């Protein structure tokens, strides 16, 4: 005999289910569009541009994400998880100095992979609770990593955690300025930064090669051109 089934959904229930599914699809489209635009053009992209890229109305975007910080929080939660995990992995390294150098290289690479995330690591978002919670946890772990790395004698005694914020700001600037004209220029900067942080004679990874003069010249030409972000509105 056929197995009895429960009562079929009423038209009202079916309509509500369809609306929820449609709302979730819109949310995912918005997040995917924001990831693309933030990743290639930075956080200055207008909310109107995100809505247009996602093929939704501005009202739909506003219903899903009240503010730009809400959207940034949702877009970058996975990357902030990776950022926080990098410090955890560095602490797990039996050689604290090696863990420190790998952590520095890894977070610089994270910035290079995503222009939007490069900016996220150098800005504060007070209402973005997830991002700020991950940042706070990573900062605590990094403080402990600094203590252990100094105990090896390889990290300068006057190094402080906030020095990395300055480094990330510099790295974000290099990434924005060079773009695809000299895409590995940031590696050279991270190599110089590690050497600035180290004590004389500390073991270090090989110094990355410099960009070619031709590539840097192309980057300088590119940097002098107006950014698309400055030609439109920021609404």
Q: What does this protein look like?
A:
Residues 24-83 form the HTH tetR-type domain. Residues 46-65 bind DNA. Residues 1-23 are annotated as: Disordered. GO terms for molecular function: DNA-binding transcription factor activity; transcription cis-regulatory region binding. Pfam families: TetR_C_43 (PF21597), TetR_N (PF00440). This protein is an all-alpha fold and 235 residues long. The protein has two domains: 21-66, Homeodomain-like (Arc Repressor Mutant, subunit A, Orthogonal Bundle), CATH 1.10.10; 69-224, Tetracycline Repressor, domain 2 (Orthogonal Bundle). The chain has eleven helices and no strands. Helix 1 (11-41) crosses helix 2 (47-54), helix 1 (11-41) packs across helix 4 (68-75) and helix 6 (96-113) packs antiparallel against helix 10 (185-197). It is globular, with a radius of gyration of 23 Å. The model is unreliable at 229-235 (pLDDT under 50).
Search tags:
Arc Repressor Mutant, subunit A; 0% strand; mainly alpha; 235 residues; 2 domains
List the helices and strands and how they pair.
Layout: H1 11-41, H2 47-54, H3 58-64, H4 68-75, H5 77-92, H6 96-113, H7 115-120, H8 129-151, H9 162-178, H10 185-197, H11 213-223
Helix pairs in contact: 1-2, 1-4, 5-6, 5-8, 6-8, 6-9, 6-10, 9-10
């Amino acid at each position: 005999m056929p197995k009895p089934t429960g009562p079929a959904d009423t038209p009202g229930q079916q309509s509500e289910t369809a609306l929820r599914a449609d709302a979730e699809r819109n949310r995912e489209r918005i997040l995917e569009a924001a990831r693309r635009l933030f990743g290639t053009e930075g956080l200055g992209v207008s909310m109107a541009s995100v809505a247009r890229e996602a093929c939704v109305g501005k009202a739909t975007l506003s219903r899903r994400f009240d503010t730009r910080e809400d959207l940034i929080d949702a877009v970058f939660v996975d990357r902030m998880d990776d950022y926080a995990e990098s410090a955890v992995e560095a602490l797990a390294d039996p050689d604290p100095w090696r863990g420190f150098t790998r952590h520095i290289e890894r977070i610089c690479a994270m910035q290079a992979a995503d222009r939007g995330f490069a900016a996220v690591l150098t800005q504060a978002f007070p209402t973005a609770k997830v991002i700020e919670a991950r940042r706070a946890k990573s900062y605590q772990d990094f403080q402990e990593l600094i203590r252990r790395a100094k105990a090896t004698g390889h990290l300068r005694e006057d190094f402080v955690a906030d020095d990395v914020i300055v480094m990330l700001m510099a790295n974000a600037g290099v990434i924005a300025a060079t773009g695809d004209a000299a895409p590995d220029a940031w590696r050279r900067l991270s190599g110089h930064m590690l050497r600035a942080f180290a004590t004389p004679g500390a073991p270090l990874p090989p110094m990355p090669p410099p960009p070619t003069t031709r590539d840097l010249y192309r980057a300088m030409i590119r940097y002098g051109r107006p950014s698309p972000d400055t030609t439109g509105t920021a609404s």
